[in-house]
Structure formats: structure tokens, C-alpha cells
């Protein structure tokens, strides 16, 4: 009986040690790799940390996408219809990236207030308002009326433009 | 316009299938509990009937797609009259409703085959296994009928044409990937049913493990191929050249794969040594639960990705409820019945038993880390604690070291003996392999690339440490035979399955290590006449042109590629397509595949002045990733073909009967 019991003891001790190491590593890795989401209005309010990777999102503002003629550098404004955020990126933008489309950019906020993006993700939003952004605006105390009209207006303008292009 | 009755027939067949699944789920289980053979006898015919009627429903939906019946909402939303016929066929499962129907069809098929190939099983066991499968089938068919009816009509306002299939899904990868993945997910339902049946019946012996093993291996092999196909599809279709993104949807398929791998190994111990019984049962329950969790994550719309079609909260709630009931009930059964089936078997710390235990622990830790990274952001969001995302660095930081530790034990496992292995034996068999792995792994990166990378060296050492001990083992197993051929012939298919499975892991590790460290990527601005050099290849853009496809228009670049020091050149033609019905743009990548390297050119965006942004990549050994996956799956299938399982379908032959007697005596 005794050796068996000892085996069991070792087994449980080993398991506990392994589990502790695993949980420790996991929490450490999670803590240093979590990217929080901020909307332009939160960044303007100074809520977002500097020199740390964050995610920011909103809509690409019309007429603000500017390509450098020599390189792949690009600048554009991301808006939540209340505040704007300047984003600079070097590389290829995703297929769905377009003025008036929802984007999420991953990168570091610079002290001057613009964001250096390492990654730009685009997605198609039916109502020109990503849900995270709507939530952030609500938390900042804006009523839906404050931005929904603007969103609808911009949506209508872009829809009209696209209609024109496809005809 | 003429309105066909096909969708109504399909809908009706689905209702019948659900009723049959209900009978299959209730009567045989009740019959097994009360020992009523008549009730138990319902199991097999109902399994066959369920398959028949789900197949009819599925055929009806397919027919609606093929006939362009846009009065069916599902067809109108996901197909188009211009869509080629093979994409119409695959569009059936390229949407929420259709894919859940495919899930149900495959579940019914697995159930039917479980009924067909279980002639040797005791009657009450068959009744319980099929009963549990019937209950699962009932849940999913109810899900289809209540929340995701694919046969809903758009009457009387029938659209003139469909909205078209998402262009990303118009691809051979999509034709193959979901059915394979689902075969894996759903296949684990069989071993889950076996586990619940064992708990209910209190029978869990070597014979039980021998029945459960082939089903587990087969499901695992399908899942492996499904994951590999998904990775391959993402690689050439998304235009980034990435092959694994740690996207929650990918993780959802990896989770049951990890526990499924643990389950295969734990089942081996249960069969050969009669140990780890409760653990095996728990793993079977977890593996299927994680398959359901994956389905929930993908199908509920809590995630935003190409995979998430549905945004209807009732669907999410329904699957969550299904998941809760399955996990809750099966864990309850486990808690109430598990102690009855367990009994203790001793082994020392240097034995195959112990090494497989370590393998299991490592795989479970990997599962937990991936699960935490995947579910943590969703939990925080659900509890309104903020929107976060967990990036690839988290997963890499944990998964890579854990894989290396796993590789360390994979080298020891196949050489070690059951119960006890003398240290001297291990050292004498393995010292050469260890030296070989370190020396070769350390120097090979120098031959291949100019830059020595410690990460690549480590990966190669790990891979060689898996392969070399297996070669040594092959040598040991065959050297007493009259000839090498005769010796190799004597080895069982299960043994070969293990060899190929482990070889596949080694090949994948080499692929991951090399492609992650020696890839070159350049994003460049190019106009006709410009050229760029990447990793010894010169890419010259000759011209830009315009092309019209069946349902898209495309900008096309013609690029000639020449290797340094070689006279021959070849063409690569990436495209940027605009799909007409959805007005969705998509990059069609130009690939030059090779065993040792891929060249990859994708068109980014039109920069206006006649030049384009191009993504040019050199990806060494990238094919090894998927080759490894195929080898693993091949190993799994080989093990299923082993003759000790085949005996289940036919009468027992005298040789294996004698072997069984010997085994039984040895155990006593």
C-alpha cells in the first residue's frame, strides 16, 4: 500500500506544480498581450495609454485617405462622428478598406496624438456604425441622436457615390 | 414563375427525421435500463431512418440551389444564377442554416455507421450508444427546425436573382474544408456516446476501449485534415500569406483536436493496461463538449469573422443551452457512475504509462491555455468589463514552449515499455538519437540559410528527437527477422499508424520553425517595368491588364520571376477581383508552390498613377505544415485499419482469439 500511496502523493504534487506553472505563465502572457479597445472620443479624452499596443476603431472619414506618392505610407482619419483620430500606416490596406467603412487599427498611440498602426482590419458594417464605437459613445455620455443622424448622412452620401460609380 | 414543392418536402423530411431521432434517443435507453429487448431493438432501424430522412432534406436543399429557386430565402441570400454549379453545391453549407443541416447529416451518418459496424457489441451497449447519438441528433435537428430553418420561403416577393455567395468562399478550399472539419467534430460524438454508454452500463474493459479506439482515430484524422485544409485555405485565400492567426474560430477547431489527441493516447493505456479509465471517459466528454463549444462560438455570432454568418441571438442561446445540457448531463452521469468503473493498476515513473500520462497532462494544459485566450475576451465582454482582444503573442508564448516539452516526451514514449522501463535500456537506445538530433538540428540551418537562427535549430532538434528514436525502434523491431522486408511486414498497422502520426508532428514542427523564421516579405509599389528582388528571386512587372470572369471583373498583373543565377524565368499572375453581385473586392494570390519554398505574390491596392501595391513573399518549407497534417491523418487511418479492429466486423480468427487468451492470462 505504501509505495502506491507515495506514487499518488508524487502524482498530485507534480500535477499541482505543473498547474501552478501553467497558470502563472498564462496570466503573465495574458497580462502583457491584452489589447484594449478605444474609440476616438476616448482617445481624445486621454483615456488611452501611450507606448502600449491598443486597438482603436471607428469609420474611415470621407476624403481623408492620403497616400504618399513614392512609398506605401498612408494617412487617414478615423471618426466616431464626435472626435477624429489620425492614423498613419505603412503597407497594404485590406480589400474591404474604403472611405466610410468600419475599421479597427492595432498600434501605439504617439504623444502627439496620432496612432502608428501596425495592422489595419476592415469590415463591412451595414449601418455605418460599429457596435463597439456606439457603446463607447454611449458610455461617454452621448445620446444616440448626437451621432446617428451624422452616421446616416455620411452613409447616404457614400451610398449615392457608389451608385454613381456602378452605373 | 413556377413554384416547386421541393423545399416543403425537405422541411417535412426534417420533421420526420427529428421524430425518429427522438425515438432513437428515448426507447433504446429506456429499454437498456429496464432490460426490454423490444425497446432496444428500435435503435438500429431508427438510426438508419434518421439518416435517410436527413439525407432527403439535404438533397432537397441542394436541389433548390441547383434549380436557382430564389423563393427559398437561404438560396436567395447565398447563391446567384451566375454562380458556377460546383459553388452552388458548396454554397449549401456556406451559410448558417445549411451548415447546421450538414452537421446534422454527418451526425446521422456517423450514427448509422456506428449501428452498422457494431454487430459484435452486446445488445444493451449498442442500445445505449445509439440512444445517446439519437439524443444529440434530436437536439441538433430541433435547432435546425426551430431557429435555423433552411427551407424558409420568400413569398410572394420572389427576388429575381440571388445575393451571391461570399467571394472568399468561392474556392476549392471551401468545398473541402467544412465537411472535413465537421466530420471530425461530429465524429467525436461516437466516442462520447461510447463513454456515456460505458458509464450507464458500468462496463469499461479492454474490449470497450478496443471498440472506441477506431472511431476516435477516424474522427481525429478527419479533424486533422479539416484543420490543415482551413490553414491552407487561409494561406492562399486571405492574401496575407499567414497560415494560422490564433483567430477564435481556428482555436475552436484546435481545442477538440488537442483533447482528441490526448483521448487517443489515453484510450491506448485503457486498452493495453486497463488504467486511466475515468480519465479516458472524462476526455471523451470534454472532446465532444469542445466540439460543441466550437460550434457555439462559430454559429452564435458572438465572433466577427468570415465564419460567423448568424447574428440572431436566439440561435446562440439555443446552442448554449444544448452545450449546457450536454456538458451538465454527461458530467452528472460521470459524477454518479465513474467510481464503479475504475480500478487501480500500478506502474513506475519510467514507463510508457507514465509518459502517456505526461503527454495527456501537457495536451490538457495546452487546451486550457488556448481556451483561456479564446474565451476570456468573450467573458469580459459578456460581463461588460470592457472590450479586449488577446493577440498571437500570448498564444505563441505559451504554445511553442509547451510543444517543445511535448516533443521531448514524444521522443521517449514509443521506445519505453509498458509498466516499467530500465533506465539502462532507455539510455542505450536513445543516446545516439539525442546526439544526432542536437548535432544535425544545430548544423542543418547553416546549410539552408545564411543566417543561423536558434529558433529554427531548436525546432529541428525537436523534430529529429521525435523521428530518430522511432527509426531506432524500427531497427530494434526488425533486426531479429530473417530479412528487413519480413521484419517490416510483421509490424502491425497500429504501430505504423503511431509512426506516421508522430512523423507528421515532426514534419509540421519543421515547417512551423522554418517558415516562421526564414520567411521574407516585402510590400512594394510597382508599375509596369519595375522590378524587385526578394530572397534571390527577381520579380519584374511586365504589364497590367483587365479580365472578365463568370461573375467578377479583375485587374491582373503579369509578373515574370527569375532566380538568381538561372536563365529560365516563369510567370506569376495575381489578380484583384471585384465580384459583381456583392460588389466585394478580393485578391487572388499568385502562388509558385514547391517542396522547399513557396513564392507568393498578392495585389494590394491600386495606387492611382498606374502603379500597384504588391505583397511579395518567399515562404520556405510552408508546405511542410500541411504535409505534416496529412501524415498525421494518414497515421490515424492506418491505425483504424489494424486487424484487431477489423475482427469486430467479421468472426474472430483463431490466432487473435489465442492472443486474447494469453493476454487475459497475463493480466490475471
Describe this structure in words.
The complex is a heterodimer of chains A (167) and B (668). Chain A has 167 residues and is α+β, with helices and mostly antiparallel strands. Chain A has helices spanning 2-33, 40-44, 131-139, 144-166; strands at 34-38, 53-60, 66-67, 73-79, 84-90, 102-109, 115-123. A 5-stranded mixed β-barrel of chain A has the order 2-4-5-7-6. The model of chain A has no long low-confidence stretch (mean pLDDT 79). The N and C termini of chain A lie far apart (86 Å). Helices cover 41% and strands 28% of the residues of chain A. Chain B has 668 residues and is an alpha+beta fold. Helices cover 64% and strands 11% of the residues of chain B. Chain B has helices spanning 6-34, 37-40, 43-66, 73-78, 85-91, 96-116, 123-147, 172-201, 206-237, 248-273, 277-299, 313-341, 352-382, 392-412, 423-448, 454-478, 484-490, 493-518, 622-640, 643-646, 654-667, and strands at residues 388-390, 520-526, 531-534, 537-548, 552-563, 569-572, 575-579, 584-588, 590-592, 597-606, 612-620. In chain B, strands 3, 4, 5, 6, 7 and 8 form a 6-stranded antiparallel sheet that branches. A 4-stranded antiparallel sheet of chain B has the order 2-11-10-9. In chain B, a hairpin with a 4-residue loop joins strand 7 (575-579) and strand 8. Chain B is flat. The N and C termini of chain B lie far apart (76 Å). Mean pLDDT of chain B is 87; it is low at 305-310 and 648-655. At the A-B interface, helix 1 and strand 1 of A face helix 13, strand 1, helix 14, strand 2 and strand 8 of B. Strand 1 of chain A pairs antiparallel with strand 1 of chain B, so a sheet runs across the interface.
Amino acid at each position: 500500500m505504501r509505495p502506491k500511496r507515495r506514487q499518488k502523493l508524487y502524482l498530485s504534487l507534480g500535477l499541482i506544480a505543473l498547474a501552478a506553472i501553467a497558470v502563472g505563465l498564462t496570466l503573465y502572457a495574458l497580462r502583457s498581450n491584452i489589447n484594449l479597445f478605444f474609440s476616438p472620443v476616448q482617445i481624445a479624452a486621454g483615456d488611452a495609454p501611450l507606448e502600449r499596443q491598443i486597438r482603436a476603431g471607428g469609420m474611415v472619414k470621407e476624403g481623408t485617405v492620403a497616400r504618399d506618392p513614392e512609398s506605401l505610407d498612408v494617412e487617414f482619419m478615423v471618426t466616431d462622428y464626435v472626435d477624429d483620430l489620425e492614423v498613419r500606416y505603412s503597407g497594404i490596406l485590406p480589400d474591404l478598406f474604403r472611405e466610410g467603412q468600419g475599421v479597427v487599427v492595432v498600434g501605439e498611440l504617439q504623444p502627439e496624438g496620432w496612432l502608428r498602426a501596425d495592422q489595419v482590419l476592415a469590415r463591412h458594417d451595414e449601418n455605418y456604425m460599429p457596435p463597439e464605437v456606439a457603446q463607447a459613445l454611449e458610455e461617454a455620455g452621448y445620446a444616440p441622436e448626437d451621432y446617428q443622424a451624422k452616421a446616416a448622412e455620411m452613409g447616404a452620401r457614400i451610398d449615392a457615390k457608389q451608385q454613381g460609380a456602378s452605373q | 414563375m413556377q413554384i416547386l414543392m421541393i423545399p416543403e418536402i425537405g422541411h417535412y423530411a426534417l420533421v420526420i427525421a427529428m421524430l425518429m431521432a427522438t425515438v432513437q434517443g428515448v426507447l433504446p435507453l429506456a429499454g437498456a435500463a429496464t432490460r426490454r429487448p423490444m425497446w432496444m431493438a428500435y435503435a438500429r432501424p431508427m438510426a438508419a431512418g434518421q439518416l435517410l430522412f436527413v439525407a432527403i432534406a439535404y438533397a432537397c436543399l441542394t436541389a433548390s440551389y441547383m434549380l436557382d429557386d430564389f423563393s427559398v430565402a437561404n438560396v436567395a441570400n447565398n447563391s446567384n444564377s451566375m454562380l458556377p454549379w460546383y459553388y452552388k453545391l458548396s454554397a449549401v453549407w456556406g451559410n448558417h442554416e445549411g451548415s447546421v443541416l450538414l452537421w446534422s447529416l454527418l451526425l446521422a451518418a456517423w450514427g448509422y455507421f456506428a449501428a452498422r459496424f457494431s454487430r459484435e457489441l452486446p445488445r444493451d451497449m449498442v442500445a445505449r450508444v445509439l440512444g445517446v447519438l439519437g439524443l444529440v441528433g434530436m437536439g441538433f435537428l430541433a435547432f435546425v427546425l426551430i431557429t435555423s430553418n433552411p427551407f424558409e420561403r420568400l413569398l410572394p416577393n420572389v427576388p429575381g436573382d440571388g445575393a451571391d455567395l461570399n467571394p472568399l468562399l468561392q474556392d476549392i478550399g471551401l468545398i473541402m474544408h467544412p465537411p472535413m472539419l465537421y466530420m471530425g467534430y461530429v465524429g467525436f460524438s461516437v466516442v462520447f456516446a461510447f463513454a456515456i454508454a460505458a458509464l450507464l452500463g458500468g462496463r469499461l474493459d479492454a474490449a470497450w476501449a478496443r471498440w472506441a479506439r477506431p472511431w476516435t482515430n477516424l474522427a481525429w484524422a478527419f479533424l486533422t485534415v479539416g484543420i490543415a485544409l482551413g490553414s491552407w485555405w487561409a494561406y492562399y485565400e486571405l492574401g496575407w500569406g499567414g497560415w494560422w492567426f490564433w483567430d477564435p474560430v481556428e482555436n475552436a477547431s484546435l481545442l477538440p483536436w488537442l483533447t482528441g489527441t490526448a483521448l487517443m493516447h489515453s484510450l491506448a493505456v485503457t486498452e493495453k493496461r486497463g488504467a486511466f479509465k475515468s480519465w479516458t471517459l472524462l476526455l471523451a466528454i470534454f472532446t465532444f463538449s469542445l466540439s460543441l463549444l466550437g460550434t457555439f462560438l462559430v454559429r452564435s455570432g458572438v465572433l466577427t469573422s468570415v465564419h460567423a454568418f448568424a447574428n440572431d441571438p436566439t440561435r446562440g442561446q439555443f446552442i448554449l443551452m444544448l452545450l449546457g445540457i450536454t456538458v451538465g448531463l454527461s458530467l452528472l452521469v460521470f459524477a454518479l457512475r465513474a467510481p464503479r468503473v475504475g480500478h487501480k493498476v500500478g506502474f513506475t515513473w519510467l514507463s510508457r504509462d507514465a509518459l502517456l500520462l505526461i503527454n495527456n497532462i501537457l495536451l490538457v494544459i495546452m487546451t486550457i491555455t488556448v481556451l483561456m485566450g479564446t474565451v476570456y475576451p468573450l467573458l469580459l465582454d459578456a460581463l461588460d468589463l470592457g472590450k479586449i482582444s488577446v493577440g498571437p503573442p500570448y498564444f505563441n508564448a505559451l504554445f511553442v514552449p509547451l510543444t517543445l516539452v511535448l516533443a521531448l516526451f514524444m521522443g521517449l514514449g514509443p521506445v519505453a515499455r509498458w509498466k516499467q522501463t530500465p533506465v539502462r535500456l532507455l539510455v542505450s537506445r536513445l543516446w545516439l538519437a539525442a546526439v544526432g538530433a542536437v548535432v544535425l538540428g544545430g548544423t542543418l540551418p547553416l546549410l539552408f540559410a545564411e543566417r543561423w537562427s536558434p529558433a529554427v535549430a531548436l525546432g529541428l532538434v525537436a523534430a529529429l528527437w521525435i523521428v530518430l528514436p522511432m527509426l531506432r525502434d524500427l531497427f530494434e523491431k526488425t533486426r531479429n527477422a530473417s530479412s528487413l522486408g519480413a521484419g517490416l511486414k510483421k509490424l502491425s498497422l497500429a504501430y505504423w499508424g503511431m509512426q506516421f502520426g508522430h512523423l507528421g508532428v515532426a514534419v509540421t514542427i519543421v515547417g512551423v520553425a522554418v517558415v516562421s523564421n526564414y520567411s521574407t516579405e516585402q510590400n512594394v509599389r510597382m508599375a509596369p517595368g519595375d522590378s524587385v528582388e526578394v530572397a534571390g528571386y527577381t520579380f519584374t512587372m511586365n504589364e497590367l491588364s483587365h479580365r472578365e470572369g463568370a461573375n467578377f471583373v479583375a485587374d491582373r498583373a503579369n509578373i515574370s520571376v527569375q532566380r538568381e543565377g538561372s536563365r529560365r524565368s516563369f510567370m506569376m499572375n495575381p489578380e484583384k477581383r471585384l465580384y459583381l453581385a456583392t460588389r466585394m473586392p478580393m485578391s487572388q494570390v499568385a502562388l509558385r508552390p514547391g517542396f522547399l519554398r513557396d513564392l507568393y505574390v498578392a495585389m494590394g491596392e491600386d495606387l492611382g498613377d498606374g502603379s500597384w501595391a504588391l505583397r511579395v513573399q518567399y515562404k520556405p518549407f510552408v508546405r511542410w505544415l500541411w504535409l505534416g497534417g496529412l501524415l498525421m491523418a494518414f497515421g490515424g487511418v492506418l491505425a483504424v485499419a489494424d486487424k484487431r479492429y477489423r475482427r469486430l466486423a467479421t468472426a474472430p480468427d483463431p490466432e487473435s482469439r489465442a492472443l486474447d487468451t494469453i493476454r487475459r492470462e497475463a493480466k490475471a
